[in-house]
Amino acid sequence: MTSLRILLAEDHAVVREGTRQILERDPGLEVVGEAADGAEVVEMAGRLVPDVVLLDLGLPALNGIEATRRIVAQARPPKVLILSAYDDQDYVVAAIEAGAAGYLLKSAHASEVIAAIHAVAGGQFVLHPAVARHLVAPRSAASDTREALTPREVEVLRLAARGGRTRDIAVTLSVSARTVEGTFTNIFNKLGVMTRTEAIIYAASRGWISLERAPRLDER
């Protein structure tokens, strides 16, 4: 079985070493590199082509949000899994908008971190339970089942998760931009959220959609 190639990005050497030891307990994981700052992890991600980057947000030189954005924009982007001490909603939303495939807190157990790495490598979206409860809990009595959304509403969220703006989504679905905006309004009301990012995270955390980005032009 081929091991998943993991790149660690953590500025505290002791924490980085401890994390490496945890990951090496799993024979399905191989730590191929360690970075101590944001600029270094971006360079190493392009050079080593890992499957998953396990990344702390509080990195020097280049913060974790910007590092994530640059990593996922590379020609062969790995999945980025955030492992952070910050559970603030603004950090989580910014990380997901930058392209992170998951967000864990450093309070997570070793088994949770390992399971999350395998999950994001397989295309799943992962949120630490404490973050999920805080971020995607509906603000209304909306149903927690996929049936709450119509197939068209799910498709609109799927296109939005791939980076589509209102005009792009309208063209893809052969509808007007006003129709797309109306669809988003219906989605917000049903899920009890206020923004597209919250709606996307809500749906992705329940497996309704994937956070896969659209392929680059040079990859098509």
Keywords:
220 residues; alpha/beta; Rossmann fold; Arc Repressor Mutant, subunit A; 2 domains; six-stranded parallel beta sheet; 10 helices; elongated; disordered C terminus
Largest sheet: 6 strands, parallel
Order of helices and strands: EHEHEHEHEHEHHHHH
Output mean pLDDT.
85
Instruction: Give the number of helices.
Output: 10
Q: Which architecture of the largest domain does the CATH hierarchy give at level 2? A: 3-Layer(aba) Sandwich
| Cα end-to-end separation | 29 Å
Poorly predicted runs are: 138-143, 214-220
Lateral strand order in the biggest sheet = 2-1-3-4-5-6
Strand content: 5-15%
* CATH top level class name of the largest domain: Alpha Beta
State the CATH topology of the largest domain.
Rossmann fold
Shape: elongated
CATH superfamily of the largest domain: Response regulator
Percent helix, as a range, is 40-55%
Q: Whole-number radius of gyration?
A: 18 Å
Q: Indicate the structural class.
A: alpha/beta
